[in-house]
Specification:
The structure holds 2 protein chains of 2 kinds. By secondary structure, chain A is mainly alpha-helical. In chain A, 70% of the residues lie in helices and 3% in strands. Chain A has a single domain, classed as ABC transporter involved in vitamin B12 uptake, BtuC, CATH 1.10.3470. Chain A has a two-stranded antiparallel ribbon. The chains are: A mainly alpha, B alpha/beta.
Chain lengths: 346, 251
Amino acid sequence: MIVLLLIVVLAAISIGQYAVTPFDMIKSISNRLFDTAFQYDVNTDTILYRVRLPRILLGILIGSGLSCAGATYQGLFQNPMVSPDLLGASWGAGFGAALGLLFALPYVWISVIAFAFGLLAVYLTYFVGAHCKGSKKLGFILGGIMIGSLFSAGVSYIKLAADPMDTLPAITYWLMGSLASARPSDVYLVIVPMLAGMIPIVLMRWRINLLSLGDAEARSMGIQVKKTRLIFICCATLITSAAVSVSGMIGWVGLVIPHLSRMLVGSDNRHVIPMSLVMGAIYLLLVDTVARTIATIEIPLGILTAVFALSDCDIQQSGVWTEVGGIVVGSLYERGSIWLYGPKNS
Amino acid sequence: MREVRFGYTDRKILDSISFQAEQGKLLCVLGRNGVGKTTLFQLLLGSLKGYEGRIEVNGKSLEEYEEKELAKQIAYIPQSYHPAYNYTVQDMVLMGVTPSLGMFEMPGKKHVQRVEQALESVGLLHLRHQNFCHISSGEKQMALIARAIAQNTRILVMDEPSSNLDFGNGVRVMKLCQKLAHQGYLIIQSTHNPQHVFSYADEVLVLEDGKISVQGEPAKCLDEEILSRIYQIPTRLFYCSEFQQKICVAL
């Protein structure tokens, strides 16, 4: 899988509106790292270091981060249909970004505000869930839906108030998710929260297995359930908020990739989490490369990941009916597979 | 347990519960649905706080134990169930070694060996790579017992282990529990089948109206009147000389 990732990275560097040959790429990297003096196309350095590499690094970070967060949430909440925006982080970050765009703030500030609102949304969800009577887990899920809806309503209001000539299209495009505006500063902005979220999850991934059995069993096997769950929620939230703050809302990656990983390595999270990290990176890089090369204008990632996710599910389960553009994509999980139903008359 | 009282805000569940259980015994808890058997087990496992009285495990108050330390003393075996993910039998049993792992530690080869031994002791080693969801309910229950064995505790708490099982599997699970008790484990389990109590239990504890109404050796302390009163159906007991035990029949 690592080899496949390297191949995809090399392909992603080479392919684009301005093709960079592998030889030029090697020469450029060699000149940088080993002070050699190879001659190559003068534009290669700019394309490589200012455009493609930041975008590829960001794609790897976001793809692996969202998949890792998705697998974590799915284990924690014992629900294979859960995705990283379960606790409202995506809509919170979306609201923050829309607010930043409305006030025409500098790009970095938009990301910072989006990140802060993503965290705020999850904090509010946690507050609601913690004060819910009965099952706390259900409280978190319902709280996440409520807070997500609240911020979604906020985004709708901002869109209503936004200038339809420039701000509204910018907000709409941002919400659909894209790495088009990726720049080196984005990588520096998200790498710390991303790694701060991913490293503890990777180190503690065995405990996700136990939490996926339910609180009573996890506790009986020595897990401090509340504390451990809170650590995982904080880590997955850091990752999701950081990802959404620079790339917009890229759906499906966090939902589908953990399932594909389980198909390859089984359900043990010791293997699922590392596999999700690598597969998520490969998946988003592939989707992003297609998004920037398939047409003269870039296609937002949110659209492509949804289309690709349907074909993934088709591969996962024979006899699946998919209908792109269908009204209902009702998803039912059964024994490790996703079944997607189109409308009944399909 | 000494003088343990527990209730929720709207109702009292357990009132003045006192009992002591020793290693090497199979203790069955009998009682109607909703009488507080599961609550009693949750208290023993440290899942419920806010009780009055004192619960001791191996001479130390339950409140002094951290989760990890308690998990080295008591293992919980739920009813056989369908987990959300397709773990293999070995994955499920391997989870039992968690109390002996550090915060960032993963199970290693020695833990897998421990799991293999536990699976062998319950006769399921040949199923270790099978999907846990695809084996029978009886085998699931056996695998969960193997997990408790891998947990290396000497006290096993089982919540109605035979309730979802057919006649044969129910007997097999109970025989395994009896065997483990004879090996020195203390097994505390709830059951709805009085016959299991007569056939396999060393001690019985009857819960009625939140209190212990009967405690002792089943053949000596359980009679028709008590069983009829607990379950509110006419019950008869016969002595079977072939099996040398009482047979319980509900009319």
